[in-house]
Amino acid sequence: MATNESRTGVLLRVERRDDGVVVATLDRPKVNALDTALLREIEAFARTCIDDPPGAVVITGAGRMFAAGAELAVFADPTLRPGQADAFRDAFGAVERIPCPTIAAVNGLALGGGAELAWCCDLRILGEGSAFGQPEVLLGIIPGGGATQRLTRLVGRATAKRLIWGGAAVKAAEALALGLADEVVGDDEILDRACALAAGYAAGPRVAIRAAKRAIDGGVDMTLAAGVDLELELFLEVFETDDARVGVESFFEHGPGKAHFTGS
Q: How far apart are alpha carbons 261 and 195 in whole angstroms?
């Protein structure tokens, strides 16, 4: 697989693959702690994906850890704390707004802000040795990167409260049972599996996949009637694309699942 590697800065490694997948790797030794600089690089990267969506995005961490939480030395300084908090909100909000499929390839631990970054993604692939954790209450604080909202939307209020109040790590098997992980694979297969899944989406009808994501994510916070209206609006828009024409023609000629889409 041919790739082109670039950097949005010094802490985020970006790999653009020929199959339409972009892999963003957090690279802040030793544990990819999320300081303001790394968060701003994540935000800048996400904004490029919003402006010019690839086929799919995979986010992972260099080394043995997906990402530790916030850089506590920054949060401990009251003069730096507001800027760090803003950087979390801006970076994770931008990741959440990426219109194409986003997959977190969670290697090792995703703690605090690292887990909150994973909650921003559409799907999460874990290794057998991976784990999530929201340990903020063990420090006498609460999550500040969106866990009380995004985690609750993933698992419901009671489970979110249990995980946040207790602060204990959630191992891969439990994460899968709770719906926090979409797949659990061998620890040496995490990135390959995430990229293979992403490549499948990138090879599909990209406009339709983005429209489905918009309908799902946008409709969650609407009334049912408004959500159905949004779906219908997008349904009619997608029918005007080349991929819809190709897909319908292929269905009548060859049956389902045989179309080759161009992403337009």
A: 19
